[in-house]
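Journal club prep, shared notes

We agreed each person brings one worked example of a sequence with its structure written out as tokens. Mine is Glycine cleavage system P protein. I'm keeping it raw so we can talk through how to read the token line rather than staring at a rendered picture. Sequence first:
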Amino acid sequence: MRAVAANMDQAAGQTRAQASKARRRLQLATPGFKQLSASRGFSTSVQDLLSPTDTFRERHLGPSPADVVKMCEVIGVKSIDELIDQTIPAQVRRHDTLVLPDGKLGEAGSLKMIKEILSKNIQAKNFIGMGYHGTHTPGVILRNMLENPGWYTTYSPYQPEISQGRLESLINFQTLVCELTGMEVANSSLLDEGSAGAEAMAMIARTVNSKSKNQFFISDQVHPQSIDLMKVRAKYFGIELIIGDHATTDFASMTKLCGAMVQYPDTSGRLVDYSAMGEALHGNGAHFVMSADPLALVVAKPPSEFGVDVVVGSFQRFGVPMWFGGPSAAFMACSKKQVRRMPGRLIGESIDRLGNPVYRLALQTREQHIRLDKATSNVCTAQVLLANMSSMYAIYNRSDGLKRIAKRVHGLSQLFAQQAGKAGITVTNSEAFFDTVAMDVSPKSAKSVVEMLQGKGINLRAVNDTLLTASFDETHLEADMHALVEALKAAGVGGGSPTAAANIAVTGELPAQFARTGEFLQQKIFNSIHSETEMMRYMHTLQLKDLALDVSMISLGSCTMKLNSVSSLTPCSWPEVANMHPFAPESQTAGYRELLESLEKYLISCTGFDACSLQPTSGASGEYAGLLVIRKYLESKGQGHRNVCIIPRSAHGTNPASAAMCDMEIKWIDDSTGMDLEEFKALCVEYKDRLAALMVTYPSTRAFFEDNIQEICAAVHENGGQVYMDGANMNAQLGLTSPGMIGADVCHLNLHKTFSIPHGGGGPGMGPICVRGHLAPHLPNHCLVPPSSGGKAAESAGAVSAAPWGSAGIACIPWMYCTMLGNVGITDTAKYAILNANYMKARMTGHYPIHPTNKHNRCSHEFIMDFSEIRRKTGIVEEDVSKRLQDYGFHAPTMSWPVPHSLMIEPTESEDRGELDRFCDAMIMIRAEIKKIEDGEWSAEENPLKYAPHIQTEVAGTNWTYPYTREEAAFPAPWTLKRGKFWPQCARVDNQLGDRKLKLRLDE
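Then the structure, token by token:
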């Protein structure tokens, strides 16, 4: 017994020694091990014992501490810190602590904190309008789309075989736009109404393409935020903007006009017959643009009947909250002959390999990722999730339900106008209006009346010194209307004899001159669903067709498809977030302002800069804003002639497209093996008198941190230019280095990548810019509600978005992300992103050629696999591998960019080792399949890669003629059985046919 006891003691001692050794290895390899140890069962202090147990760091980071040890062994390092030292040059490493929360609150504590902040908002009854309206988001859409990861975690539908659900929803949206506007084609969303107007103006200027016709007219009855934004866009397009009264302008004599734009209904609420204006413009060879309210178009004469060429607008009031300015889906519609110049993504029909009808992205050759500086626009991320919400809103309400909503809104405004008239208030647009009633309150000051009513929880708009407007929406009740009348009377408005408006009949019908005639939205989808059960099942059916993060990892390089946590997204649906009007008075928006200002401080700390603007609504919008700031700064120094922008060949397509929008002359530099410093310096010296900017991504798009980045930035500064850093790869920098450390002057951040806002299938996004102090006076501003962080009025580069803080409604997501992770956790996200990428790269090495990285053979947060040799030997191309991955249950990595014939893989920090291994195993098994082609077992034409993906009906069908089994085709890996098979919804899509036979809307 003593011997047994002694053996047991010896074994226990060995076990304790092994556990101690394992613990030391964990501590060495794993950042934050000390903080983790308490939750792993090690000894704790009382403080640790009683701290929140729902801290976010462990829930966000994929690999466990034990995984980290194994992964470091595979990579060939002892710890993550050693890996980081070998990845990021020492000279750009930051060693300070980020000025962020400590991350100890936990998820529940962070939600409590943000609730306390946002409770400072005051939810008034809004009648402000101006393109932002209260709306009812149907609960079935809120729960099953907006709050559903199957919808919000998808990426842009570049892989149509696993994107048929949202592609169908988007072609529904395009059809909805065409039906309401009367136009032939529409895109699948733009960023906001103001920028859509600017895009229309630019499209028309390109179409006319004549220096003798470089004037563009904007009616002074267009919403002021749109006019403000278009002023900025016109400046660098060489467009002379004329703002005036369309009613008194002689368009027939304006021979230099390329186009003109009006609002319908106009910003003062009037419905105007623009037919004569359209005829005059066309007679002069000019184009006619209209910014239209889609709810008004449900009952009002469509723009096409006024001879309009291009229609833009916002679908916010189709079921999308105001969100303090955004996000919501804007749109553009035009004729077929202009479609190839139209910005934004287009969804069209085609067929797959088996002849089945399918949807796909059409005419991609117009877009920035292909045409670069010759693209129709720099638009990349748009507002897909919101466009889908609006199309579902139309489907759920059906065409007859939309009519009831529009007529009810109009009826409320009629009743208000009538009651106002009876109270002696002068209504100035009583002849024809839809939802907005304008009132002359003289001799009262409109501003003073607005302020008096704000004290009673009612918001109106003061158009000028004596004109007020009240806009009605579907959330208003009859009681709200009566309360508004009484409040106006109490403020001393009216009080005399009844005015003409007292005779208005409440019918819900527009005057015959403006009433829509004929049927619209007769397609089956807009008239077949009425119950919540049917609606739920329709959305679920579409969701099941798409591969999102709820299915498997999406390893798209340079796209950062990380976790979008539920806790981060939860506040978006709260009333105090969703129901705030962007032009509400400052006294009502204290909570939003506090949240936004603290988020700006977090981003400033992460970038190492001095100031921040949250206004840009996408990464491309951020690029444009950053370059505008540089141009404005140079002009302020008398250096406005500087217009040369140096861009590496590996840059994102948005870079040259944005530079072109700022009228910059692009000079390309080769960086295929990294930026050659001497060559770069010589280029800077060559253009030293005109050099404006360098646009550079760091770490580079070729997946490593360049050692000479500080010297590159210094060379730009020495020759009079500024450095713009593209923040697409910021996920590898957080807490480890910064744009400030490398010597940049301005950068944008993709909050829909780095800071966890979901991609939504192609939007929404946020692309704020951070700048050094000398550029701060030139940050974007706003004509109606200047943000506290905006540039000085006279020095600002101007507005880049219609709302003061852009997509403010989703700013709570990055705020929660930063608060829950804290300064240590944020830094660990970058470390784990680099760890995961290097682990996958190590596993792939020996199976595929890997594009060169740094001197230590370390990649950044992504890596590039080269298929040139495989392509040459077998005819198998990167697209074949990408489609074959769908059979294994995975989304394709980024194809053929920035290196031709390649795949770029970015796993992010959120994926655990098991998922990383499954993806690597899939790629290794695919390599074995390629080997069978090399060995002649399968021909170059008849093999599972060329026929991929394989769909359920084909695999289950009676006819199988392929030289491989059904199991090899559809169940090539064990997890496709154990975890459940994700079936692509169609076989490989014929892209060429889809562009030759263009069909962009539903017929029936």
